[in-house]
Specification:
Layout (H helix, E strand, L loop, with lengths): L2 H4 L3 H29 L8 H27 L8 E4 H11 L1 H7 L2 E7 L4 E4 L1 H18 L3 E9 L2 E8 L6 H5 L17 H12 L1 E2 L2 E2 L1 E6 L6 E7 L1
Parallel strand pairs: 2-4
Antiparallel strand pairs: 1-3, 4-5, 5-9, 6-7, 8-9
Length: 230
């Protein structure tokens, strides 16, 4: 039996299903926001609300990653780099997480250590990476997050640092092997890092490709994610 007789390729079926799931999740988030707006103010701000807000973003981020990886696999994920104002980019990423940060009682700050106010990258793709990293950082942070932008040589570096326990030693030792299998303690698969690395590598200039790096420490002492863009 050949492939045509088997019908649709399974990866295409999965991608179509993920797309439908993402649409359903978007409708659910919209309905939740409308319902929340009708609630009395006294009922806002509970811990359950924080959990829902965080998990909505976590689910949406995973679905975006799966669709992105599918498009990468069939060479249909276009990259459209352009110049973007760095402070506007950071503020937009934090604004999208504002409700989750408030419910989790996390103070998020940012700083730009470069004289160049513009960065050259695909805004949508890089934003999807930063959104996923922020979601994970919020999950593990104590009470603080720091987003930083700086230049190292000819590369723009976007970092996310938290005050949590940091990355497990196993992840640091095998950080070039981003698909590391499911960690039974944390449920982590490394898929987010793999997605981030693939998006980073799409950015190339003068033979230099973007990359990612994880470590522990930084200004807040916890997990430290760095995205290098040439």
């Amino acid at each position: 039996m050949n492939r045509d007789e088997l019908g649709l390729d399974f990866s295409t079926v999965i991608a179509s299903t993920v797309h439908d799931m993402k649409n359903s999740l978007s409708a659910l988030i919209q309905a939740h926001d409308q319902w929340l707006a009708r609630l009395p103010e006294a009922l806002h701000g509970g811990s359950e609300q924080g959990v829902m807000e965080h998990e909505f973003r976590h689910l949406n981020g995973m679905l975006v990653q799966l669709l992105g990886l599918y498009k990468l696999g069939i060479n249909q994920l276009p990259i459209c780099p352009d110049y973007h104002e760095l402070d506007d980019f950071i503020e937009a990423q934090l604004a999208a997480q504002q409700e989750v940060l408030r419910h989790r009682d996390i103070l998020a700050t940012w700083r730009i250590d470069t004289d160049n106010p513009l960065g050259f990258f695909d805004r949508e793709l890089v934003a999807s990476v930063v959104a996923n990293v922020l979601t994970n950082a919020i999950r593990h942070a104590g009470h603080a997050l720091l987003i930083g932008i700086e230049e190292q040589g000819e590369q723009l570096v976007i970092s996310v640092n938290d005050d949590g326990p940091g990355y497990p030693e196993r992840m640091l030792e095998r950080q070039q092997d981003y698909l590391q299998g499911i960690d039974s303690r944390t449920g982590s698969t490394g898929l987010g890092l793999y997605f981030a690395a693939r998006i980073a590598a799409l950015h190339e200039r003068n033979g230099v490709r973007g990359r990612i790096e994880i470590a522990n420490g930084g200004a807040l002492g916890g997990g430290l994610f760095r995205l290098y863009l040439p």
